[in-house]
Automatic annotation (TrEMBL), chains A, B:
UniProt family annotation: Belongs to the trimethylamine methyltransferase family.
Provenance organism: Ruegeria spongiae
MF (Gene Ontology): methyltransferase activity
UniProt keyword Methyltransferase, yes or no: yes
Name of the protein in its database record: Methyltransferase
Lineage of the organism: Bacteria, Pseudomonadati, Pseudomonadota, Alphaproteobacteria, Rhodobacterales
Domain of life: Bacteria
Amino acid sequence: MTAQPAIRSRSGGRSTRRALRAAPDCRMLPGLTNALPLCEVMEDSQVERIDAASMDILENVGVQFRDPIAVQDWKRAGAKVDGEMVYLDRGLVRELIKTIPSDFTYHARDPQKNVRLGGRNAVFVPMTGAPFLRDLDDVRRNPMLDDLAMFHKLSHMMPALHSSAHHIVEPYDHPISQRHLRITYSSMKHSDKMFMGMTTSPKNAEDVMDMCAILFGEDFLEDHPVTTGNCNGNSPLVWDETMLGAMRAFCRRNQPVLCSPFVLGGANTPASVPATVAQLNAEALSALAYTQVIRKGAPAIYGHYLSTVSMKSGAPMAGTPEISLMNFMIGQMARHYGVPWRTSNTLGGAKTFDAQAGYESATTLSSVMHAGANYIWHSAGWNEAGMHCSVAKFIVDAEQCAMAYRMAEGPKWGDFDQAIAAVPDIGPGGHYLGHPHTQENFQSAFFMPELFDNNSIEQWAAEGKVEITERALKRARYLLGEYQEPTLDPAKDEALRDYIARREREIPAADELNQSF
Amino acid sequence: MTAQPAIRSRSGGRSTRRALRAAPDCRMLPGLTNALPLCEVMEDSQVERIDAASMDILENVGVQFRDPIAVQDWKRAGAKVDGEMVYLDRGLVRELIKTIPSDFTYHARDPQKNVRLGGRNAVFVPMTGAPFLRDLDDVRRNPMLDDLAMFHKLSHMMPALHSSAHHIVEPYDHPISQRHLRITYSSMKHSDKMFMGMTTSPKNAEDVMDMCAILFGEDFLEDHPVTTGNCNGNSPLVWDETMLGAMRAFCRRNQPVLCSPFVLGGANTPASVPATVAQLNAEALSALAYTQVIRKGAPAIYGHYLSTVSMKSGAPMAGTPEISLMNFMIGQMARHYGVPWRTSNTLGGAKTFDAQAGYESATTLSSVMHAGANYIWHSAGWNEAGMHCSVAKFIVDAEQCAMAYRMAEGPKWGDFDQAIAAVPDIGPGGHYLGHPHTQENFQSAFFMPELFDNNSIEQWAAEGKVEITERALKRARYLLGEYQEPTLDPAKDEALRDYIARREREIPAADELNQSF
């Protein structure tokens, strides 16, 4: 929202600032370069200990690949295989993962919106996969394609979001078997930022690749990451056919996948933070290694979905101290292997956008910044443990990401001498509001959140006692009113539509419309 | 609430756990030893640059001490003085501050609740100074002495709070001139944790010192810090008579004060993060140095109240990226000088306990943990920029502190080998809930917040759609029902009451009852 770099780069006159206020500044912030010293809670010997425990698991416990093609691939790659069980020698794992690029550039439809990933370079990506939304009236209901389009538009307009993702919400008004086509088209059409690719089946993943080839050119794909697939593991230590098939579709076209063990700490891992990380690490390594069996040198991302589980209800929790600690540790492991890594960001377990959601989301956001995550997924909208995407929360989370972005840039020293020269100008007991340095610099010096109300209670009451949910929904409506669709080459648009029409004729829709969840 | 150390130290049987659940576990967590690598955003040369700029300010711009005694003290100490303006040579400043202890132990009425401060040792202290409260029915109104007692009881019961502070809320049903006596007594009586001492005037501070002498013994005070006074500066670069007089009362009795510049970034400092830190640092140093003029070797704490200002309304903001950055930097400066430091914690600017309050509070809490703050003040209840203390937020914030405490302890490696041994036991595709290691360890392995609801929406709806405010208020009522007053030696109690009665006869109450704010 308050995209300070834009304001900084323009002249400081009052009329300019008034003009800027008139239209929302939706220019995307460049990909983040995290300048913070990272929170590394393990000594080198502890990193080695996790590594050794993970390698022991891979060698001796083994990983189940429930997929005949993967089993055959592993045999050819020299792993010990017994039925679906694959035992990976640590030498083989290390040999394989060393060809994963430590960083790469994502290419967006608008090349100005390309972003780097890996090392200190990071991106914020909205949440995905919600079977419900809380809409512009904060009503919880099943989402439709129009709702998905709305979220893609908002993703396009929020400066700190670097991607329009894919199925932010699950569109119920279209058959499941064909949904991936419409979802991909909506991501591509409503934003020119990068986007994610559906991995709901190997064939669906192929469709996504074909659509990317239409948008960017088949040859371009060969050398340029343009999208991201997510492949969840079934912890403990299982990868299934759907995910592995989708992984192959992406890797063969040289497109990166997130290798994401799905960890509910204490339920599908041991009741220990370091042991959970060791198991998760083994799982991630097994998939990362497999990406290189599929295609040596293909980009791949160390992933995870990570929660701890309430022993009262079995439900995943958010914002707990162990999630923060595990993020710090996983960051260290990924850097140890020299692979970019993904985490989950502003997760909330609250049913409404109440203070619980705020605490959970801010705690997670802060931790993933200090952990030095690269692909910062689920960065806007997630509440109710991912069961719904909230429009209000989406807007606030995205602004929080802009604030975290600012923090991660570190202190700005450029005008230190001029700023400090104001101190003798003002002297003891004065105030700085009228000083020329203040007038020139306050907007870039101090972030002013749009969605937080800092007025007095009297003023707040006079304005109708509006809490943050309502303020954010008002902002969302305003933004959608200002939305301008980025131009898409009409020939590519037509080719995409033709592709979808053809595939929808080929894919049986059946009557599965209402069987989605 | 979920004070895991207690659970860990007992046997792991189910009946034991059931019994533990029956009564709230209110045992105080030991003083925190922060094991996180700290977020140090400045290189050594930048620390030197801030130091040099601050010393230039002290030498050339000067600090105004609006207090004849302080001016005389400074003359005797060798400073250049011109009217109320004091110019401090950097050599003098360095010489003076080097006698401030880098850490010390606070002594509580219950010696089991003594806590260390300085270096890696930190404490959580509730908010203070609210002219309003949101009460057990979430109604915003003026507080009374009974409300203050309620907050002192809750402070006593929340495991992560290490202090009962002082005027958490401002009791309106007692004359201002005598209030400090009743406030101090309430802190002392309702909790046996350490507490803060009022600094509303030099004479009031003397009364607090006298009451501490009654409680602990005059001689004991000489060698043992038992309370904390706060002395706010008037930024830029002014200290007033009230604060300096109170500072003298504390320092003479060897009791620590917080030397707290009151910074509204951009309004009473330059519009620059590093320049704001340089000015704040100069201000803090001038007061820290003065504590050593008063009494060489007296404990003192590098303080600050720190906000950035909304240029729309002039109001202080909370949870902004610059507040986080300045906390990181101030932590570095305080460690550079080898002095313990104070920060402000879960500040909220929201008018209600909504998601804004959650984001703001969690962002600040996370930042002060990564900054390595020692005296972590305003750790529970603060909302509406400090205008009210919310009972609901008090309970949730205190639990958040317990969660941050757990994070700051770092990963626990003690049972790593046993935990990792569970992985082959369970194998691919299994679950860990029934494993003996899980049964034994889940409570200590993963924090389970009491105040967060992680149930399904169906269960949540069946239970009445209770949001966090209502849950927290219910918890507060429950805790207050279980409250047990810690025994106070009847002779000391009588002596304290006699002292108050005598002073209330001596101090004119006038009719200032309703003129308090």
